[in-house]
Amino acid sequence: MTCCYANAAKILIVESYHSEYSWDSRYYQGIIDTLGDEHVYHTFQMDTKRLPVSEHAARADSAWETYLEVKPDIVILGDDNAVKYLHERLRKTTTPVVFLGLNTASREYNLNQAKNFTGIFERPLLKRSIVLAQQLLPKKSNRKVLVLFDSGTTSKASIDYIRQIRTNNFIGNTQVDIRSVDKFEDWQQRILTASDRKYDAVFVGLYHTIKDKNGNHISDTDVLRWTQKNATVPHFGFWSFSISPQGNIGGYVLDGYVHGVTAAAIARKILQGTPPNRIFPKTDSTGRYIMSRSGIKKWRLVVPDNILTRVIWVD
């Protein structure tokens, strides 16, 4: 890799999901804003949030065909499924690869042995989120919270990570129960019974692969709006896209734009001549306090002064 690519590189961005998905659009904008418009960008959307798992491999084959056609100077793989389905083929090439949004550990795909790979890991900021909830909720010596995810690839990796940081199902003095569901009726049951099960709060993880009883995909917007309307306890989020008047009330969250900026900074170093194996992968721990005024008001919560000055309000 030579520095000449810094002036006019062909960059292929393979999205695990789709451009309408807020996380994707945010990190894409972060990449463009950081690297600038002097490069030629190509994108491929695998759409794995909405398509059944049985079609994912075929979408990866199409992404590979795009790679062969474009012959990019660098590839950016967005999120777990793009890495899962393409890492073996790409590691056999000399094309530099930057991954972002990867929840799975690098050893899962032996990425630490791939000389042309580097990137940025994504980890739910659960410990900081629990600290925030403790500051917002009424004082209590022992708490019990529910962490709820769908059953997608990213959710499974996130759950594995959360289980690793718990000690006997606790983080501090907070009991952390984790549930992964596939069907909307199961999701609804978990949300509706949270108060009866003595949970103090629900942390809504990902909810983008939920299906109805007939196996049809339910839009993430519908799942989140239903959750907001029917929640029996305060509900927080891990990602900025889930915070809104029609969604979660707030959280110490990861933001796709910041994630994209960080990944693009890595890509820029490579385009300027630094080999990928000389750039150690990073973990995104740059959270933001993002909250909904209407959500905070609904649950009669009070934001402490030390946090209030740093909050980004969505309404």
Characterize the structure shown.
By secondary structure, this protein is an alpha/beta fold. 35% of the residues lie in helices and 21% in strands. It has 2 domains: 3-122 and 256-284, Rossmann fold (3-Layer(aba) Sandwich); 126-253 and 289-313, Response regulator (Rossmann fold), CATH 3.40.50.2300. It is built from 10 helices and 14 strands. The strands form 3 sheets. It has a 6-stranded parallel β-sheet, with helices on both faces. Strands 7-8-6-9-10 form a 5-stranded mixed β-sheet, with helices on both faces. Helix 7 links the parallel strand 9 and strand 10 (235-237). Helix 1 packs parallel to helix 8 (256-271) and helix 2 (56-70) crosses helix 3 (80-90).
